[in-house]
Amino acid sequence: MDARIAITVNGEARDIAAGATVAALLAEIGLDTRKVAVERNEEIVPRSTYAAVALTPGDRLEIVHFIGGG
Amino acid sequence: MDGHPATIDDTWEVAGRRFRSRLIVGTGRYKSLEETAASIEASGAEIVTVAVRRVNLSDPNAPMLQDFVPPSRYTYLPNTAGCHTASDAVRTLRLAREAGGWNLVKLEVLGPPPFLYPDMRATFEAAEALIKDGFQVMVYCADDPLAAKRLEEMGCVAIMPLGAPIGSGMGVVNPYMIGAIKREAKVPVLVDAGIGTASDAALAMELGCDAVLLNSAIAHARDPVRMARAMKAAVEAGRDAFLAGRMPRNYSADPSSPMAGLIR
Fold first, then answer.
1. Is ipTM over 0.90?
2. What is the pTM (predicted TM-score) of this model?
3. Which residues form the active site (chain B) (predicted)?
4. DSSP string of B68-131, one letter each residue
5. In this complex, how many residue pairs, one in chain A and one in chain B, have their CB atoms less than 8 Å apart?
């Protein structure tokens, strides 16, 4: 059985396969990478690096998009 | 040829980008994304403000604003609504820059209800941090000529004093000060917030403002698409009236018809 690690995504606890990347997380959630932005532990994760950035236990991620606003 | 050349070429520029429409509209408070899209189209706006929020993880396939208001067609102006500190504003807009790839942003740091008045101390701090981080900052601010001048000197690319509190629909309650800020400014001045109906937008433009930013006046109208059209016409009319130069106010009457040649 693959090891799992605990992370926090948009304030919610979540676990994911150890070694998973940001790209894998977005795919698992089902998000179009072109429409979101990701912050990991308060640092921006550039879109071009999603497939290279591996998640580590305790990571806190924010995944945002644009919504209506004034 | 019924168009006047001066108005045909009447564009404005912010942060090196040139725009024809002098109406910037928000994308919030509509009943649906379809209504948002139809209203914005009717407004003729080229720039729209947007907010940055967490994706709903439980519904990742929910329709997104971008599908209805395409960034390929409209310049997105991400805002800092909901941010109360400089660091929140910087974090939010860094995410916006990554999501959209641009650095033109609207800074707004609001105080508490019931007025949600611009918190100028926090606004100055956030403006400084954002400018240092490479953002081009259009700043929502109090109708305070001293604050406006300081924001301009710090490097803000547009000054956006409120006409009245956000969402109040009270119009331009201090036209004298808005006009004064515009006359002193070397960067574009926009009335942001407070516009309630078309005549308010026209007044803001007659005062010489470069553009008007509004949201609720359209979104909360009974017929948003029709109000969007009214706002487009009002901004154009107000701009034309400003360029045309209004007649002087006079305390006594002056007949329009000649007094000579009356029958006896």
1. yes
2. 0.90
3. 106
4. HS-TTTSEEEEB-TT--SHHHHHHHHHHHHHHH---EEEE--B--TTTT-B-HHHHHHHHHHHH
5. 102
